[in-house]
Amino acid sequence: MGLSLWLVPNPAQLQLIQKVLPKQPKTRPVSAASYPDITPHITLASSGKATQDAILRVIPSTLHPIPVEFQKLEVGDHYFRSVFISVKKTTELVALHDHIMAALDRDGASPSAPAFPHMSISYIADEDGAAERKKAADELRAIAVVEGSETDLDGAETVVLRCGDSEEGHVCLARFEGTEVWIVRCEGPVQHWQVLHKITATPDVT
Question: In the beta sheet, which residues pair with residue 45?
């Protein structure tokens, strides 16, 4: 796969989302490649040709936090999109994506970002099949995902993640704030992927 640019939640939200990501089930056999530990993120672009320096050059010199709004829990037919949450195409998110894709394209890096934008929840091997992917989504709906609990101003579907409890009550997320962009070498098994560089967004002044 080469190098990827990820938009990652702020540290507090990252921890909350990671709490609800499915682990390998103990009640049924699955492939060793299924349910690896993953970092919640939005892939802004990937390239098998770009160097790390080229990737760094395309990131805007001034990076602001990017709002990411969840829309729908979905089941896909690709390992990296086995179970995922589709994300609203906000102006800020699309602008960052378009800027990066255009810059990499000009460099001849042939960037890609399939099903942009989405946040993967589980990677499940093809050998475990569509049934396992559906089971993972159903289990999430039973314990951690509330669908259709909100409607945005556009009338689009929304989804909320139940991330546990606190002293103030239930902790739920319908969105996150993307405050870091990571450059990640995505080669080999997921557990061997390497975070090469992290760029932190400049907080908006209010």
Answer: 5
CB 58 within 8 A of CB 99: yes
At residue 180, the pLDDT reads 97
Give the CA angle between residues 54, 67, 111 to the nearest 5°.
30
Q: What is the three-class DSSP state of 162?
A: strand
172: which residues sit within 8 A by CB, 6+ positions away? 146, 160, 161, 162, 163
Give pTM, 2 decimals. 0.91
User: Is residue 183 a contact partner of residue 55, using CB atoms and an 8 Å limit?
Assistant: yes
**Could you give the 3-state DSSP secondary structure of residue 202?**
coil
Below-70 pLDDT ranges, the chain:
148-156, 166-169, 205-206
Contact 41/117 with Cβ under 8 angstroms?
no
Q: How far is 90 from 167, CA to CA, in rounded Å?
A: 32
